[in-house]
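Quick one:
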Amino acid sequence: MIRRVQTGPIPHFQYTPPEGPIPVLYEDETFVVVDKPSGILSVPGIAEDKKDCVRSRVEEQFPLATGPMTCHRLDQSTSGVMILALNPKTHKNLSKQFEDRKITKRYLALVEGHLESDEGTINAPIRKDVDVRPLMLVDHLYGKPSVTHYTVLSREEFNGQPVTRIELVPHTGRTHQLRVHCAHPKVTTVGDRKEGETDGLNAPIIGDELYGSDVNDPYKQRLCLHASMLSIHHPITGVRMTFKAPDPF
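Output:
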């Protein structure tokens, strides 16, 4: 029933986040939108050496901010648009928008090889791999529904290898969803597909230190996954606002 790919343990990598202030894309009295760099945590980790994160740096840049601030997260290796609330009321509003899926997100990625199809939808349920943390796996028996739409933007070369530039639109928000959906079935899988479910792209994201083809050499380049666009309703006016972060690769 289980087709295990990685048996772990996952190599330990030293946490060395990029230095300097977090680039600000937009700010007002209620929230701030930043362009998160690759390599920094969204929120503090448990270990003392992982307290430095997007939230702590934004707190330094906006000392009058109050409340939980964090409305959503991006993986440490993922860059791009991230929004933080500057007061508890805004945090509640934005968190509810995420919960109710009223927020639109788009990601840019480079994946291994040249994909055959120009677009499609991946429907592969995901859960935590309790035996190999922090990995996720596809579980057709007990996984949580996970859906991603992809569109090919171009087929190109990157560092001398064929890659496909794609846009990813997640319709659910599972941990590592985009990374797993791109790499699957090169990730651990439980059970067999049910009606309506699919495999992934069989094309890991370039630089993926967890699900890539060469996880033992994660420093060849950064993870080529970027949160390129985020669209919300302003927590006070209700006006639809869209924020974009420049493509880094």
